[in-house]
């Protein structure tokens, strides 16, 4: 997880995100305590599929355009 995202969490804040490679991801819960410590907890295995347009390609404005 990029440190910049975790730094933006408010005390008591939570962030849930899929973390991992294309075929092996875990849904993680990050929490920031009142004193600024970050903890993480594995919630469950997941697999997110890429967003595609009607023809099966990447839609405009995605990472493939950069």
What does this 3D model show about the protein?
There is one protein chain. Strand 2 and strand 3 form a beta hairpin. A 3-stranded antiparallel β-sheet has the order 1-2-3, with no helix packed on it. The chain has one domain. The chain has 66 residues and is mainly beta. The chain contains 1 helix and 3 strands; from the N terminus they run H-E-E-E. The chain starts with a helix and ends in a 20-residue tail after the last strand. The radius of gyration is 15 Å and the shape is elongated.
Query: What is the succession of H and E elements?
Result: HEEE
What's the domain count? 1
Let me know the number of strands.
Answer: 3
Q: Assign a percent range to the helix content.
A: under 10%
CA gyration radius, whole angstroms: 15 Å
């Amino acid at each position: 997880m990029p440190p910049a995202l975790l730094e933006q969490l408010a005390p008591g804040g939570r962030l849930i995100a899929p973390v991992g490679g294309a075929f092996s991801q875990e849904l993680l819960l990050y929490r920031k305590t009142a004193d600024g410590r970050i903890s993480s907890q594995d919630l469950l295995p997941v697999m997110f599929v890429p967003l595609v347009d009607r023809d099966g390609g990447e839609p405009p404005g995605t990472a493939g355009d950069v």
